[in-house]
Design goal:
The protein is mainly β and 66 residues long. It has a single domain, classed as 2-Layer Sandwich (Alpha-Beta Plaits), CATH 3.30.70. The chain contains no helices and 4 strands. The structure holds iron/sulfur cluster (2 copies).
């Protein structure tokens, strides 16, 4: 069954992200990936759970309306 669309999505500020990788295993649907050297949030996989936002040591992740 398809899940309901997320109300919010996580976005990463690549000017701030230091590519530490800490957030990758924190994302339940594995929506966060490192592609080459940049962090990418898969918008179709993010459920808007916010579990990645607070743990980021440099505050690079935030939520935006979907
Ligand atoms: S935890 Fe923050 S700084 Fe580390 S890879 Fe994720 S977004 Fe970037
Ligand atoms: S909000 Fe949740 S689902 Fe979306 S990228 Fe962050 S941890 Fe993953």
């Amino acid at each position: 069954m398809r899940r309901a669309p997320a109300a919010e999505l996580a976005v990463v500020d690549l000017q701030v992200c230091d590519r530490c990788g800490l957030c990758l295993p924190l994302c339940p649907p594995e929506a966060i990936h490192l592609e080459f050297t940049d962090l990418v949030v898969d918008r179709s996989a993010c459920t808007g759970c916010r579990k990645c936002v607070a743990p980021c040591p440099v505050g690079a992740l935030s939520m935006v309306p979907a």
